[in-house]
Amino acid sequence: MAEKTIFSRIIDGEIPGSFVYQDEHCVAIRDINPAAPVHVLVIPRKPIPSIADLTPEDHALAGHLLMVVRKVAEQEGVAERGYRVVINAGDEGGQTVPHLHVHVLGGKQMHGHGTA
Ligand code: 5GP
Fold first, then answer.
1. Which ligand 1 atom is the nearest neighbour of the CA of 6?
2. Ligand 1 nearest atom to the CA of residue 96, by list position
3. Would you please indicate which residues are annotated as catalytic (active-site) residues?
4. How far apart are the first and last CA of the chain?
5. pLDDT tens-digit series, residues 54-85
């Protein structure tokens, strides 16, 4: 079996994580190296490597992740002011952890698309 991702290890309680939300399909944790005052990662429990690996059977899960993003933004108090949602995919997309995750960034003014 492939080695567990760092996010699967956090989900399974093998290493600590700062959880802000959990349900049967996904979790949300604070990013260990926050790029904004609010920086939460919404992560499916299923270890899908990247958005490129989603299959038709993940249709509902993919939608659910966005609904959880919305919930987390409200919970973190940035829903009204605005926030940024980012999914990095693959090497050139800047993805460093091969377990699909959605960044929720907020609490400061952002511009452009973050192409640095
Ligand atoms: P990516 O670059 O793959 O889109 O984002 C990976 C994110 O995971 C980075 O923002 C990084 O700071 C975060 N990260 C990496 N390792 C850990 C960890 O062990 N715990 C937490 N909470 N976040 C992590």
1. 19
2. 3
3. 101
4. 35
5. 999 999 999 999 999 999 999 999 999 999 99
